[in-house]
Amino acid sequence: MTMTLTTTRTGPDWPCQVKTPGSYDWERSAAKWLRELVPARYASYPALIRHPVLLARHAQIQVQHEIRVARTALQTARAELPTLGMPESVIEHTIKMYAAEVLQLQHIARSVRAVTEALVRHSTGR
Questions:
Q1: What is the pLDDT of residues 79-111, one digit of tens each?
Q2: What CA–CA distance (Å, rounded) separates 126 from 77?
Q3: Which of 34, 50, 56, 125 is the most buried (most CB within 10 A)?
Q4: Quick check: 21 and 10 in contact, CB under 8 A?
Q5: CA distances (Å), 48 to each of 51, 82, 118, in order?
Q6: Is-contact 109 65, C-beta < 8 A?
Q7: Which pLDDT score is estimated for 9?
Q8: Cα 6 to chain center, whole Å?
Q9: Rounded to the nearest 5°, which phi and psi values hold at 54?
Q10: What is the predicted pLDDT for the residue at 77?
Q11: What's the average model confidence in pLDDT over 50-74?
Q12: Measuring CA to CA, which residue among 52, 55, 59 is closest to residue 122?
């Protein structure tokens, strides 16, 4: 039944790459996972290295932007890809790819929110 307790504490959106809040080194695992979600150049900014909550905030913004990009690509594919000479089979595959990406990014966004909330609770001592 320990697994149920862990699942309850972290929720279904908790990323498997991040240790359970309160466990040894969990913040480091959270920061490592969050760094993978932002462009590599941000990894060297001292403020984002020292303050995982800032990194989490940036990751939230980054993922929301990626969702908008994938939605735009999905919404415009049927009209724009034929003008680029893409055959119908490629267009259909591309539409499915973008639709799947939007769903994946929405899941990642929920995971980032869960990690952010845990980091904020930890940093404020709640």
A1: 999 999 999 999 999 999 999 999 999 999 999
A2: 46
A3: 34
A4: yes
A5: 5, 42, 17
A6: no
A7: 61
A8: 21
A9: -65, -40
A10: 97
A11: 97
A12: 52
Where do we find the tokens 């290295």?
A: 49
Long-range residue pairs from 10-17, CB within 8 A, at least 24 positions apart, any chain: 10/114, 10/118, 11/114, 13/107, 13/110, 13/111, 13/113, 13/114, 14/111, 14/114, 14/115, 15/111, 15/114, 15/115
pLDDT at 5: 36
Q: 55: closest CA among 89, 85, 30, 90?
A: 30
Look at residue 30 and give its three-state secondary structure.
helix
Q: Show the DSSP H helices in 2-124 as ranges.
A: 2-10, 26-35, 46-50, 52-80, 88-123
